[in-house]
Design goal:
The structure holds two protein chains of two kinds.
Chain A: E1 2-5, H1 6-9, H2 11-19, E2 29-33, E3 50-54, E4 69-72, E5 88-91, E6 107-110, E7 123-129, E8 143-148, E9 164-167, E10 178-181, H3 185-197, E11 210-214
Parallel strand pairs in A: 1-2, 2-3, 3-4, 4-5, 5-6, 6-7, 7-8, 8-9
Antiparallel strand pairs in A: 9-11, 10-11
Chain B: H1 17-29, E1 34-35, E2 49-51, E3 72-74, E4 83-85, E5 89-91, H2 101-114, E6 117-119, H3 127-132, E7 135-140, H4 149-154, E8 157-161, E9 172-174, H5 181-187, E10 195-197, H6 206-220, E11 227-232, H7 236-245, E12 250-254, E13 263-264, H8 265-270, H9 275-288, E14 296-300, H10 306-314, E15 319-322, H11 324-330, H12 338-343, H13 368-371, H14 376-400, E16 414-416, H15 419-425
Parallel strand pairs in B: 5-15, 6-7, 7-8, 8-11, 11-12, 12-14, 14-15
Antiparallel strand pairs in B: 1-13, 2-16, 3-4, 9-10
Helix pairs in contact in B: 2-14, 7-9, 9-15, 10-14
Classes of the chains: A alpha/beta, B alpha/beta.
Chain lengths: 229, 442
């Protein structure tokens, strides 16, 4: 394992080394020590490598990740795995605001709780939160799946497009155009797979979740809906 | 008995026929008017400024003989690979979706031949534009449609869009009529629905976050790309200062004459400031921070001619951007299509329903039958010609003012025809030494 001391060597040297891992490399295991809340740790990686960050991270850790598996052995600041394309990001602790924002692919697993706007504008990413999520989560979420083992805060799925939301606990309130939908067999199958990949299959059963999605009433502007905004 | 003269019909200056027509339209439809373009009202503008030209106290340069350079570097503050353009007139961000693929190709062709850059828009980066633009600026927008690290890396610069002059504080809407399969796919949304573009970024708020966002973008692109921050003309002094504080290489400032693909008419006409009022405030912010010319300033909104370019640069801009003017150069609103404009209930030079996707000129549309009318090679040539003419015009004025580079133009070369423009631009009213608000004025 290649160990990288962020406190000693600095962010630019870390990301520059990770960006150099193009194509085939046999150095596939990386460890980052002393992250101390630094921003943009392992942002823009595009290689099938494993990166373990030993500690908590600042803003935008694993931003725009492609292919890499990034484990944060602590909590993550705002915008973790924002706009992720592929790969996996797993956070042992909690995640701050905008976790997985605009993510287009890959899997984001948060073992603690996530703050507000989790999955905002998500565009294809899968997010599994073992704890609860804050208000305005999945705002304008376009596609992908958000799975929450705990509760959801106010205005879940406001102005939602085609993303699927699965919540096991309570939902404080639903946002504009977000409604509860029927759980069909294909959703159970999807959820079974997501719980397994999200390292949560021992913690919850698919049948315990409710599904939420778009009522599709705000898809084309109608003046009679103006009060919904 | 003879008839006494009657009072002739008198129209109200407040309730004009146009105002009344809008009240009737609102009453009948129940929805506000949506349109494209920028403000149509009369505003203090570059037309209200004049150059003084050389005299005994300064001497001019010889046209056709003595050099007057036009090149500009952008992104010299932090980027490892700053941009070098032959002319200081860039093409502003316009989306694929709002514009057809062939129109984006034409912008790339014309700009590249003229030695300048084009800019993507809300639809992401298309092959038409990347392939034909030698220098391409990739916009980083709140919607993040199509955003990905590969396109960030193959861009020549990144423009973080905070606002635009047509609608500072507003998001966007691409109506369902223009959402073809390709547009829908690029934006990862169902076909035919109205696509909203958010007014705020989803993962940062305020200048401190912006600084960290810029750090992330620089890290992802290994500090190679210049990072622009685009702001609408609302509070240009503070927004420019905050963009500089957040680490921008370039500030792009768009006045209320700047166009949009679609937004509410009330927004276009009543929010934001004219570019003339914006430039001096932004330049003051840069000067106060000791960053004028170090962080470059690109201004846009109503730039039409080489005179406008020269005036913007004399006020302190490093470069300008054109959007609406570029579309007109391509053939938008051309009277050659008058019969079809009439069928749409409008007329050439007034057509602004770009959001409906029925553009007779085949530019602001996603209808394959309509965009067949538009030849991107010819369109590109027209744009190149127009950019060349603007450059020659600006050089003509600069030489007359004795300047061997467009960047050497200065406010001292200008006077104003109106008190309003004198106050906004910070140059004296012609024939006086009076700058309202300065020199002991109010």
């Amino acid at each position: 394992m290649q160990s990288f001391d962020l406190g000693q060597e600095g962010l630019r040297a870390l990301n520059s080394s990770l960006h150099a891992l193009k194509g085939q490399t046999n150095m596939t295991a990386w460890e980052v020590i002393n992250p101390k809340g630094a921003h943009a740790i392992a942002a823009g990686v595009d290689a099938p490598v494993d990166i373990t960050v030993r500690g908590s991270t600042g803003y935008y850790c694993a931003g725009m990740n492609k292919q890499a598996t990034i484990r944060i052995k602590g909590s993550a600041g705002p915008g973790v795995a924002e706009n992720m394309m592929s790969g996996t990001v797993i956070i042992d602790g909690n995640a701050s605001q905008y976790a997985g924002a605009t993510g287009r692919g890959g899997l984001l697993v948060i073992k603690g709780n996530a703050s507000s706007r989790c999955g905002v504008s998500m565009k294809g990413i899968d997010i599994v939160v073992h704890g609860s999520i804050g208000h305005m989560s999945a705002f304008m979420a376009q596609s992908g799946n958000l799975v929450v083992l705990g509760d959801a805060g106010d205005a879940l799925g406001d102005s939602l497009y085609e993303a699927r939301l699965f919540v096991r606990g309570s939902v404080k309130s639903l946002g504009a155009d977000c409604i509860e939908k029927e759980m069909r067999p294909e959703h159970i199958a999807l959820l079974t797979d997501l719980l397994k990949r999200g390292e949560a299959d021992g913690k919850a059963k698919p049948e315990e979740f409710k599904r939420y999605g778009s009522a599709r009433k705000l898809y084309n502007f109608n003046i009679d809906n103006a009060s919904a905004y | 008995m003879t008839d006494l003269p009657r009072t002739p019909p008198r129209y109200s200056a407040t309730f004009t026929p146009a105002v009344n027509a809008e009240i009737r339209r609102a009453a009948a439809s129940g929805i506000y008017d949506i349109r494209g373009g920028g403000t149509k009202r009369h505003l203090p503008h570059f037309d209200d400024l004049l150059f003084l030209g050389a005299s005994i106290s300064r001497y001019p340069l010889e046209g056709y003989r003595e050099k007057c350079s036009t090149d500009v570097w952008l992104g010299t503050r932090f980027a490892k690979k700053p941009i070098h353009l032959d002319i200081p007139i860039t093409i502003a961000g316009m989306s694929f979706g709002a514009l057809s693929g062939p129109a984006k190709e034409a912008l790339g062709r014309g700009a590249s031949e003229a030695g300048t850059s084009t800019t993507t828009g809300d639809g992401g980066m298309t092959e038409e534009e990347r392939g034909h633009s030698k220098t391409l600026v990739y916009q980083y927008l709140p919607s993040r449609y199509g955003m990905n690290p590969d396109d960030l890396r193959r861009a020549d610069a990144i423009e973080v869009v905070v606002g635009q002059g047509a609608k500072p504080g507003g998001g966007g809407m691409l109506l369902g009529q223009k959402i073809s399969d390709r547009v829908a796919n690029m934006r990862n949304l169902p076909k035919g629905i109205d696509q909203r573009s958010a007014c705020r970024h989803p993962d940062w708020t305020g200048p401190d976050d912006l600084e960290i966002k810029i750090l992330e973008l620089r890290e992802i692109t290994d500090w190679e790309k210049p990072i622009y921050v685009k702001i609408g003309g609302a509070r240009p002094y503070y927004d420019t200062a905050l963009a500089v504080k957040a680490g921008a290489d370039v500030v792009v400032l768009d006045g209320m004459q700047g166009g949009t693909a679609a937004t509410q008419d009330v927004f276009i006409e009543h929010v934001g400031m004219p570019i003339l009022a914006c430039i001096p405030q932004a330049v003051k912010a840069l000067q106060d921070l000791g960053m004028h010319r170090k962080v470059q300033l690109i201004v846009s909104g109503g730039i039409r001619s080489g005179a406008d370019v020269a005036k913007a640069m004399a006020l302190g801009a490093d470069a300008v951007a054109i959007g609406t003017a570029a579309l007109i150069a391509l053939g938008d609103n051309d009277p050659v299509w008058e019969e079809e404009y009439q069928k749409l209930g409008t007329t050439a030079d007034a057509y602004d329903d770009w959001h409906e996707g029925k553009d007779p000129a085949g530019i602001t549309t996603q209808d394959p039958e309509l965009f067949k009318r538009f030849d991107p090679v010819l369109g590109g040539r027209r744009l190149k010609n127009y950019l060349k003419v603007m450059t020659l015009e600006a050089q003509t004025i600069a030489r007359a003012c004795g300047k061997n580079h467009l960047h050497n133009l200065e406010p001292e070369d200008l006077v104003s025809l109106t008190i309003e423009a004198a106050a906004m631009a910070g140059v004296p009213l012609a024939g006086t030494n009076w700058i309202p608000g300065r020199n002991g004025g109010f």
